[in-house]
Amino acid sequence: MRQTSFSEMHCSLARSLDVVGDWWSPLVLRDLYLGIDRFDELVRDLGISRNLLTVRLDRLIAGGVVCRQRYSEHPPRDLYRLTAAGRDLVPILMALTAWGDRWTDPEDGPPITFEHRACGHRFVPQVHCSHCGAQVSADEVAPLPGPGGRPGPGTMRVGDYLGGEGTANKP
């Protein structure tokens, strides 16, 4: 049940949310990453209705983050896999999971932890600067207009920056 489309907004976050911005899609993506890749398994693990899962998977496929692979013709059965774009969402889901571990107070500690295969150590997902490698936080970042930035729906701040009126993190 779509209420609003953000696909026409000049904002990458809004367009991303147009693809994965409902309650179920990140959970579907999480399950696919964890290897739960069959329709009936997804229904069982998530407790989602079959109709709702069908709609979510179709949107994720249309958005290019999931692909369907037929594994049986009679009866027709499919596996669902993350595409390259879907795999690029996994670190974002990990960071959101780390936020939940910190701010939603899981009673017995984190329900899942992450191990970096390259070094074998468990880690807490964080966002780092792609240039210097330092961890970044909201207070350490200055949003600036990009080459595709222009005033429009959902981009009031970008319009301010382009007009020279705005400053990052106004009180």
UniProtKB/TrEMBL annotation:
Keywords: DNA-binding, Transcription, Transcription regulation. Gene3D superfamilies: Winged helix-like DNA-binding domain superfamily/Winged helix DNA-binding domain. GO terms for molecular function: DNA binding. It holds the Pfam family HxlR. Transmembrane segments: none annotated. Residues 11-108 form the HTH hxlR-type domain. Residues 161-171 have a biased composition (Gly residues). It comes from the Bacteria. The keyword Glycoprotein does not apply. InterPro entries: HTH_HxlR, WH-like_DNA-bd_sf, WH_DNA-bd_sf. The keyword DNA-binding applies. Residues 143-171 are annotated as: Disordered. This is HxlR family transcriptional regulator. The lineage of its organism: Bacteria, Bacillati, Actinomycetota, Actinomycetes, Micromonosporales.
